[in-house]
Amino acid sequence: MQKGCRLGGPLREYCADLHVHSAFSRATSRECNLAGLAGWAGVKGIDVVGTGDFTHPGWLSILREMLVAAEPGFFRLRGETIPSPLPGHPPVPASVRFVLSTEISCIYKRHGAVRKVHNLVYVPDMASAERLAARLAGIGNIESDGRPILRLDSRDLLEMVLEEAPGGFLVPAHIWTPWFSLFGSRSGFDTVEECFGDLAPYVFALETGLSSDPAMNRMVSALDRFALISNSDCHSPSRLGREANLFATGFDFFSLRDALKENRCETFRGTVEFFPEEGKYHLDGHRACSVRLVPEETRRLGGRCPGCGRPLTVGVLHRVLELADRHGPLHAPDAPGFFSLVPLPEVLGEILGAGPGTKGVMGLYSRLVALFGSEFGLLLRAAPEDIREISPLLAEAVARIRAGRVFRQGGYDGEYGTVRVFGEGEVARLSGAGDLLCEGRSRRDRRR
């Protein structure tokens, strides 16, 4: 656990992943439907999920048909149960809530430069979603992609949200990624005010993205007033919860929104994070030449690839350091916390020496979810002794992850980084007889 408040408290605690996509977005799984999202949310331990893509007419029609109002601004699926996405598991209660969300790609010219900024929008009701979608349809094509690409200034999009969706709000998405973000090295701005102008006071939260974490962002004093949220931005339901948000507040849209506005750990507990090195743009580099660089090396090379001489893609760490005015992060005493985790299938894959999506890994994953209730139930909340009863090796892995004692190699130029829990040969040395995880590993080894 990193700097911030501890889990626990008298108010209802829940987990929310507020940035996802439907099957109407490009490069997404066909399983990105409401049942698929709700099923995997239950497996992960997520209580509230963004719908994504409500501006798309086809998806909005499905949302109207399949969702019913629950708590204020939250929706639930019609029907009492949904199929579990894990083979052999019984249907699960349809208790997951949805919040109407979308992502807009704003591409426009400002101050003599082309800007490409992705923004997340959240609205509390179907009527607001319909009004905003109709307004955007008058600007560009909202049917070709669930995440529409519009010639629309971010400031003007925010104005439309305020006009058409009272109670709604806008959050700049994955703010540091090079190509399509508020602070992106290729097409972004240096301040929130420069991007949103007179409406900047209406922006109260920023999405950090997979390649940065709150500690990096808290090196920039200009971001002190903003809540920092984290989401999966998943294009497949099984990737839900790669990052997520933890709340202890009223279970409704408006309480969630107000917890972000207040930005205190009493109600906005904090975020579940990737280790930022695992993100695709943490370091600088040039993927075509397999060149991965830290900011100091990039500056020494004049921003040029040493292999081919082309411009390097300047990553998130470099960009944060450009705007930072502190040598280290400064967290307010009541700041939300953050918890850096490694997805459980990756941990199991490392232990078993197999890919995270292989049959053996997913079979073991399914058993562990049944034992601990959810993936987050194991990684975030399970007592060490309870994990140790099942597998001392897994207990050691979880202890290391919670303490941040992992091996990291940063991602760059669209290539994911790697985070490993164990060093070379450690799994074999630590394996013990009767360990649930090692049993599967030893059976595989005997077949070789």
UniProtKB/TrEMBL annotation:
InterPro entries the UniProt entry points to: Pol/histidinol_Pase-like (IPR016195)
Organism: Geobacter benzoatilyticus
Listed name of the protein: DNA helicase UvrD
GO molecular function, one term: helicase activity
Top-level taxonomic group: Bacteria
Family annotation (PANTHER family): PHOSPHOHYDROLASE, PHP FAMILY, PHOSPHOTRANSFERASE
Keywords: ATP-binding, Helicase, Hydrolase, Nucleotide-binding
Keyword Signal appears in the UniProt entry: no
Claim: Transferase is one of the keywords in the record: no
